[in-house]
Design a protein that fits this description.
The chain is mostly helical. It folds into two domains: 1-107, Rna Polymerase Sigma Factor, Chain: A; 109-182, Winged helix-like DNA-binding domain superfamily/Winged helix DNA-binding domain (Arc Repressor Mutant, subunit A), CATH 1.10.10.10. The protein has eight helices and no strands.
Length: 182
């Protein structure tokens, strides 16, 4: 399959085309992020987010550009967004009194109300996950509740790692649709 053909088929929601594009460009996007982040797990997570976002928005891809360039741009923007979130999570206030520096760190420990809300959200999320097909439930459970790496999930399910990545992408997309509907 050629890249242009795969893109056209992916725009028609062809799963094999998505798999082909993921196989073709995974190493490029992952390598790009690994150089930037220098952490394998974080680079892998950003790469998965990149493909998820790209596949969700594939109908907006302009075929006069290179697909790899488009993916790298998406990946770079996702990484920049993550850096901004990290930077904003800690506030720092400097006081000029006697040249003393005062650091005010945002207390992110949950209040009792936050804990209750989180438990309610988790219960709803679990109900929504149960609406997925069993193989999607399993891959979500292994990745997000048991916190296994893609390699470990691949070994657990006895499936190629790219199948695990695609299955996880699809599971997250279907779960997002379920959550939006309810």
């Amino acid at each position: 399959m050629e890249i242009k053909e795969a893109i056209k088929r992916a725009k028609k929601n062809d799963q094999k085309a998505f798999n082909f594009l993921l196989d073709q460009y995974w190493d490029d996007v992952y390598g790009f992020q690994l150089k930037r982040i220098q952490n394998e797990n974080d680079a892998e997570d950003v790469t998965v987010q990149t493909f998820s976002k790209a596949f969700d928005k594939i109908e907006t891809f302009d075929e006069s550009y290179k697909f790899k360039t488009w993916l790298i741009a998406i990946s770079k923007n996702i990484h920049i967004d993550l850096l901004r979130k990290e930077k904003n999570s800690i506030t720092q206030i400097i006081s000029n009194n006697d040249d003393d520096h005062v650091f005010q760190v945002l207390d992110e420990s949950p209040s009792p109300e936050d804990i209750l809300i989180t438990e309610q959200h988790l219960a709803k999320l679990l109900r929504d996950i149960k609406k997925l097909k069993p193989h999607y439930q399993e891959v979500i459970n292994l990745r997000y509740f048991q916190e296994l790496s893609y390699k470990e999930i691949s070994a657990e399910l006895n499936e190629p790692i790219n199948n695990v990545k695609v299955k996880l992408l699809r599971a997250k997309k279907l779960l997002a649709e379920i959550i939006q509907e309810s």
